[in-house]
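Input chain follows. Return structure tokens only.
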Amino acid sequence: MIPVFGLSLLFSIALCVHVVRTRQEMWWLLIILMLQPLGGIVYLVAIVLPGAFGSTTARRASAAARAQLDPGRDYREAAADLSQTPTVQNQMRLAKAAASLGRHEEAERLYAQAAQGIHADDPVLLLGRAQALNELRRYDEALAVLARLETDADGGASPQAALAYARAYDGLGRQAEAEEAYRSAVERLPGLEAMARFAAFLARTGRGAQARDLITEMDRHIDRAAPQFRKEYRGWRDLAARALA
């Protein structure tokens, strides 16, 4: 009978072979070998299973794990791809990666540069730029960009656009319009961002009891969430809780 240590070693070796054959980042080898068997399990969940099954949940788990281990990876890869192949698609990838790192001025500039010519009314580019403008507190400009989405039924009606509208209206003090847009986003947008931002809005507008109810609902979501999503969800929950403090 093979001892437990022997099984762990065989498991780690098999995963190391997978790292090399599939050309993953070499630091995975250190994680797998130095943190046996936990490192191997992380690699299995983050890389092997998403590649094997390709489900949406698996891909989200992979992205979450990679973001925690190497938050700058997507940005580096997108920047390298854009320098070699300067396409709108690669510019969009870099803008999204920049935004995820909090580099919103860069993201806004990249989205604006990409939204030219035949791509001037691309709903993905317009929404990305509006989201960056909201982060920069340039709410009037965000609304002007979002208004161009109205000509695109899918983009204008999307829950992501509703949340962007809500944030812009909120920033400008247009509370009635902000509340309507927040409610629309909360009803249709997965994850906890819309709920957290709506709870913060309710707290700022003197409706602490309603905000606390939403935070309680967020706590239930966090308890049921997969482990790799809980850190992100707690971050949104904390955003709402700070508005109540």
